[in-house]
Amino acid sequence: MILTPVATIGRSTLALLAGIGSVSLFFFRTLAAMLTPPFYFREFAQALITIGYNSLPVVGMTTLFTGGALALQIYAGGARFNAEEVVPSIVAIGMARELGPVLGGLMVAARVASSIAAEIGTMKVTEQIDALVTLSTDPMKYLTVPRVLAATISVPILVAVGDSIGIFGGYLVGTGRLGFNPAAYLKNTADFLEMWDIMSGIIKGAVFGFLVALIGCYHGMNSGRGAQGVGRATKSAVVSASVMIFAANYVLTELFFTA
Amino acid sequence: MIDITDLHKSFGTKRVLRGVTLNIPRGESMVIIGGSGTGKSVLLKCILGLVKPDSGTIKVDGKDVTKVDRDAFLADFGMLFQGAALFDSMSVWQNVAFRLLRGSLKRPKDEARAIAVDKLRRVGLGPEVADLFPAELSGGMQKRVGLARAIAADPRIIFFDEPTTGLDPIMSGVINDLIKEIVVEMGATAMTITHDMSSVRAIADKVAMLHDGTIKWTGDVADLDTTSDPYVKQFIHGAAEGPIAAIR
Ligand SMILES: Nc1ncnc2c1ncn2[C@@H]1O[C@H](COP(=O)(O)OP(=O)(O)O)[C@@H](O)[C@H]1O
Ligand SMILES: [Mg+2]
Known about the structure:
heterodimer; A: mainly alpha; 9 helices; B: alpha/beta; Rossmann fold; six-stranded mixed beta sheet; four-stranded antiparallel beta sheet; 8 helices; 10 strands; binds adenosine-5'-diphosphate; binds magnesium ion
């Protein structure tokens, strides 16, 4: 059939629009659940630990190596027009504005969106979500709100920590391999880094954290039946959370840095 | 007390409930029988609002369930799910006491735990089980913990979805007695799904047979053996021949 590709495009477009619609609806339901009592504090505290604290090692390792690699690249690139001394400031600006939040967000998407989707999806297919309802507990308030709030609060903190570790990675490579003077490296970093560089990255982190947890919960709550359904929900959660991070990153960068 | 009128529910093209009409009087124990996959669990879930019916009405105490305050409505219910549906992130006693640890029925932790241990004892589980996690229990034990959770807050209306499936005959007997006791002692209204004919005879006041999306027969448990209804006859004798197809 000649029209098959057109039909496929049409069908995927419709599916995409339906998906956007139902995620938006889920977003508003989450907000509504957030603004009405009860608030499950224990679940929130638990989520802070599993989402935030337990992500520290991965985010730290990722940004440490990336900071180091960035220093090498900028040094090599800078050497082409005799501007090797920009390494400290570009590493710091690059980490704070872009790489800290994006890499932090992606690592959290891989770690957290998947585990949230798998956990809630399993609860869904084993009727635990139904059981919550019959025990007079709203699954949106009990499961979604604590995770979304915890991610929105903890990912910016992860980003701030990741920024520092990334800059430290650049410092290690800069002073150890590239012959920078340690004191000069630090001074150069501090002189050129502006508050807004850091803040913009942290705001990005909050948005990414929110998106990752929301998408993880959404796919879990809408998981298909059986083990296969949970597997698919987990995969979709990681893929769509990652894509959403890149898209949101572009939009936020436009907003923040083009005047 | 529970009045179901002309209830329809389809999943995609699959028509599961096709006009179920059923009345369960207050304080009675109604048992639903019927082949697997005929929509018995879906029927219970419709009453609880976990599944949205396509059409038809469900009234509890004369009030349409879609128009009542959900929290107050659900506070009257206890439900044992077919697969127990225990929360695997918390220990057995916390599962049983879930309702007693939060929300309007919240009480001190020791008190909630004491109630949980007592309910566990009633379903034949010792206090040593209280601190285990659901994953450490056998299927039959999970089922009994689910039962303890369903009765923990002394509900007025209790639904049991296959309470004795997967239990040995002695434990089935214990659970049957318990269900009967809950209905008699607490004056609760019960709706039980089961395939187990000894269970039916032990706990039912009334029996309804669900097949092909409708109630084919309903009557007192005493009439079960004398009815000429071909569906019921085939079901209680477990015959391969009859109006109920073996392949469905
Ligand atoms: N959420 C659902 N989505 C799609 N189909 C469902 C769903 N729940 C139940 N069904 C289908 O409805 C039918 C009746 O299921 P159920 O009520 O669980 O049967 P049983 O009488 O054994 O309890 C089955 O064929 C099942 O596949
Ligand atoms: Mg069933």
